Structure formats: structure tokens, C-alpha cells
Amino acid sequence: MKRFILSICLALSIIALGTISSHAFVVTGDYSDTVDFYSSGTYDGRTYQLIGDNPDFSYTHSVDFAYPAVDVTSAFLTLTYSQVDSSWWNPAEVWVVQAGNSKTQIGTLDSTSGWKAETFNIPYALYSSIAGSTWNLLITFDETTGGSDSFKLDKSVLSGCYTYDPCDPGTVPEPATMLLLGTGMIGLLGSRKRFMKKA
């Protein structure tokens, strides 16, 4: 029994020491950042901001990763909006959704009178070089038809997956935990040995 406990303690200690210096694997996590809009009031049970087309409207998503990101593997933008004009007597509005400082087009808003949640895929080129603790993404709405147009925006959610190094000192202290566990088991073995001598 003593040999079994001692071998477990040694194995845990070796694993702990190995992972302290090893950064050979990464773990996948998810992230999310929500921007709520409410400055214009309430419509049909939701707060909103009235978005006009002159000038173009922009805002920034600021993602704080739970652990420093090695890289971002996916990104999606979900918008909840209402009252994009679709009336027959007025040409439908065309609201282009753009992402990043380059204003890359990621889609257009659908015509709707009620609230709608629509998800857009963020192109890989906009997050391929993202690493570290934070990521800021600029979102812009550009209305491409004539006249003065507007719509109601309730919520914007940027979400997706990223990878992080669990052995990074800034993340989970797994090696130290295993080292502590191994040391504790050695201590238990020593106290058991002392108890057996007394009996």
C-alpha cells in the first residue's frame, strides 16, 4: 500500500513539474460581449436606440477573455432590431452591417416591422491575429439608399470560441495544485507510518 501511495505521489509530482515548463496543448473556451441599447425608449417590450443613416452609426464590442487567448477560432454577431422599412409605397431600406476598422461587409439587415434576432458570421481575417486578454471590434451600420432612414436597435452580442493555454501562469494554477496534492499525499504517508510505529 505504501509503495502504491508513494508511486502516485511521485507521478503527480512529475506531471506537475512537466506541465510547469510545458505549453504543448491548448484548451477551447467561449466568450461573449453584449451591448444593450436603450437611449431612445421602449418599443413592444424592449428598450432600443433609434439608429439613423446620417452619419453612419458605429459602436465597439470589447471582449475580455476569461483567460489570455492564444487565438480566436470563431466569431458571430447577433443583432436584435426592428422596423427596417418594407412598405410597398417606399423602397426598402438597405442597411449594410460592417465589422472592423476596414469596414468589411458581413451582411444586411432584413426588412422587418417586429423584433428580429439575426446572426452574422465574422470573417476569419478580422480575428486571425487576435491574442491576449482583450479584443475590440468596431461595428458600423451604413444605409445605402436615398432619403433619411432609421431603425430600432435593441441588442448586439459578439460571441464565439477561442483557445487558451491552461499552463499559462495567468490562467488556472493546475501544476501547483498537483504539486500540492502530491506533497499532501506524501505527508499522509508519513503520518500513517508514525501511527503504525506507535501501535
Structural class: alpha+beta
Q: Calculate the mean pLDDT score and round it.
A: 81
Oligomer: single chain
In DSSP terms (H or I, runs of 4 or more residues), the helix count works out at: 2
The CATH topology of the largest domain comes to Jelly Rolls
Task: Give the end-to-end Cα distance, rounded to a whole number of Å.
Answer: 18 Å
Computed CA radius of gyration, to the nearest angstrom: 27 Å
Top CATH class of the largest domain: Mainly Beta
Relative helix content: 10-25%
Strand content: 35-45%
Strand tally, please? 10
Please outline the major beta sheet: 10 strands, antiparallel
**CATH architecture assignment of the largest domain:** Sandwich
- Our count of domains comes out at 2
Question: Which key features would you list for this structure?
Answer:
199 residues; alpha+beta; Jelly Rolls; 2 domains; 10-stranded antiparallel sheet; 2 helices; 10 strands; 23% helix; 43% strand; PEP motif putative anchor domain protein; signal; Ice-binding_C
Notes on the structure:
By secondary structure, the protein is of the alpha+beta class. Helices cover 23% and strands 43% of the residues. Strands 1, 2, 3, 4, 5, 6, 7, 8, 9 and 10 form a 10-stranded antiparallel beta sheet that branches. The protein is elongated, with a radius of gyration of 27 Å. Mean pLDDT is 81; it is low at 19-23.
